[in-house]
TrEMBL record:
Transmembrane segments: 12-32, 80-101, 154-176, 182-203
Name used for this protein in its record: Cation transporter
Membrane topology: Multi-pass membrane protein
Cellular component terms per the entry's GO annotation: membrane
Family: Belongs to the cation diffusion facilitator (CDF) transporter (TC 2.A.4) family.
Keywords, comma-separated and alphabetical: Membrane, Transmembrane, Transmembrane helix, Transport
MF terms (GO), sorted A to Z: monoatomic cation transmembrane transporter activity
Cation efflux protein transmembrane domain segment(s): 13-207
Domain Cation efflux protein cytoplasmic: 211-289
Pfam family, one: Cation_efflux
Subcellular location field: Membrane
InterPro entries xrefs: Cation_efflux, Cation_efflux_CTD, Cation_efflux_CTD_sf, Cation_efflux_TM, Cation_efflux_TMD_sf, CDF_Transporter
SUPFAM superfamilies: Cation efflux protein cytoplasmic domain-like, Cation efflux protein transmembrane domain-like
Length: 300
């Protein structure tokens, strides 16, 4: 079975190639059409190329097998790449904000009507890239690929605000030339908001936050299917890149031999990985039934 990173790498590469073409189209249309909102959009797409490449590097690193220096694998590289994307988005937003204010204070021509056609095409392309990348990111449970998808959505939003701004400038005529620049300024705020939504899940993953409770419940159910398993106690789950690591306490009859307990632990591990293929490893602690009752204050 191909590694989940392969799909993520493919979607990221498609995004890089698409953004390289859009940088040229937006930049040329913005300069020829007197639209700073389009030029700001080109800057945002240029940052997309850089951050998508960072995501690509992160995915490549996360897919590496564990080694002596990284016995738990290189999965942290994946959310780390997403954090870099979030920071880069904030940087691009600040640049767009500064340039927008400068253009608002400086008189200039009204954007050309043809820029609306260019923006309409860009919005469709970027929204399509968002939907494709987000589907892949959800499928392979990749924070970095989802972050890259939101970068596409942010680009679609900036293009939409530019479309509205240029439309106002064209309809309003004299005195409304800066509507295009105000649109770019508003877009910078939207980009920062997107950066926040990218940063939070990536940061929580770096901090080993637990996945949704449903995941642990499914792990418990898989363990319960193994013969001689009476129940489960602690179930700790953390995500490392594309994989999950599980620490589970399994309750068994205290009179079983060490060999029998050892065999049950292996069966539990196999059952969990069969039910949840994204689980890379399971650390099973065998807990005698009587000891479990005593720990929970049920016997003295």
């Amino acid at each position: 079975m191909p590694h989940p990173s392969e799909k993520g790498l493919r979607s990221t590469l498609i995004g890089i190639l698409a953004n390289m073409g859009l940088v040229l189209i937006k930049g040329a249309a913005g300069i020829l059409g007197n639209s700073y909102a389009l030029i700001a959009d080109a800057i945002e797409s240029a940052s997309d190329v850089l951050t998508s490449f960072i995501v690509w590097i992160g995915l490549k690193a996360a897919s590496k097998e564990p080694d002596a220096d990284h016995p738990y694998g290189h999965g942290k590289a994946e959310p780390l790449a997403a954090i870099v994307v979030a920071v880069a988005l904030v940087g691009a937003a600040i640049l767009i904000c500064i340039q927008s204010v400068e253009h608002i204070l400086t008189p200039h021509k009204t954007p050309e009507p043809f820029t609306l056609i260019v923006l309409g095409i860009i919005i469709v392309i970027k929204e399509g890239l968002y939907r494709y990348s987000h589907r892949v990111g959800t499928e392979v449970e990749s924070t970095a690929v989802k972050a890259d998808a939101w970068h596409h959505r942010a680009d679609a939003i900036t293009s939409l605000t530019a479309f509205v701004g240029i439309s106002i400038a064209l309809i309003g005529g004299d005195g409304y030339e800066t509507a295009d620049d105000w649109a770019a300024l508003i877009a910078s705020g939207i980009i920062v908001l997107n950066a926040y939504h990218i940063f939070i899940p990536a940061f929580t993953e770096i901090m080993d936050a637990a996945p949704p409770s449903e995941f642990a419940e499914e792990v418990r159910k898989a363990a319960a299917t193994v013969p001689n398993v009476i129940g489960t106690e602690k179930c700790l789950v953390r995500k490392m890149g594309f994989e999950y690591f599980v620490d589970l306490h399994v309750i068994v009859d205290g009179d079983l031999t060490v060999r029998e307990g050892h065999d049950i632990a292996h069966q539990v591990k196999d059952a969990i990985i069969a039910a949840k293929p994204q689980v890379y490893n399971v650390m099973v602690h065998i807990e005698p039934y009587e000891e479990s009752l005593r720990a929970n204050g049920m016997i003295f």
